[in-house]
């Protein structure tokens, strides 16, 4: 199962496996951002952001643009934004399903709890 395609796909998803990188990509899905804007939104140290941006650059997910002393980043492809939207939709569906299961569990616990309390009175 060491297919180069599967290896590359696994590496791609590893790249997405950090909350800061996901948030950066979400912000860049909206529009290009200056590094200072990213820092303000993320509330992390500049060195941490630099490290995460380097990972995203190496994966060719973002591209920098320098204008004087200001560096801005944008996505290399709108498909990245689409992937994040699909992931959000999947997570929403999973969480919604879990909430439904939780409601069912709470309702069934309430029914058996009510029956138990009336038997002991």
UniProtKB/TrEMBL annotation:
Q: Where is the HTH arsR-type domain?
A: 1-95
One protein family per Pfam: HTH_5
Picking any one GO molecular function of the record gives: DNA binding
Q: Does the keyword Transcription apply?
A: yes
Alphabetically sorted, this entry's keywords are:
DNA-binding, Transcription, Transcription regulation
Q: Which SUPFAM superfamilies match?
A: Winged helix' DNA-binding domain
The cross-references to InterPro entries, in alphabetical order and at most eight, read: ArsR-like_HTH, HTH_ArsR_DNA-bd_dom, Metal_resp_trans_reg, WH-like_DNA-bd_sf, WH_DNA-bd_sf
UniProt entry tagged with the keyword Membrane: no
Q: What name is this protein filed under?
A: ArsR family transcriptional regulator
- Say which species the protein is native to: Amycolatopsis lurida NRRL 2430
């Amino acid at each position: 199962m060491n297919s180069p395609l599967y290896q590359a796909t696994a590496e791609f998803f590893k790249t997405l496996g950090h909350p800061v990188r996901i948030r950066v990509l979400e912000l860049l899905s909206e529009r290009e951002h200056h590094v200072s804007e990213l820092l303000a939104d993320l509330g992390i140290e500049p060195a941490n952001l630099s490290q995460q941006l380097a990972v995203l650059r190496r994966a060719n997910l973002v591209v920098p643009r320098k204008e004087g002393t200001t560096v801005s980043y944008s996505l290399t492809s709108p498909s990245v934004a689409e992937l994040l939207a699909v992931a959000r939709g999947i997570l929403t569906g999973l969480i919604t399903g879990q909430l439904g299961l939780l409601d069912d569990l709470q309702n069934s616990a309430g029914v058996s709890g009510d029956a138990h309390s009336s038997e002991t009175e």
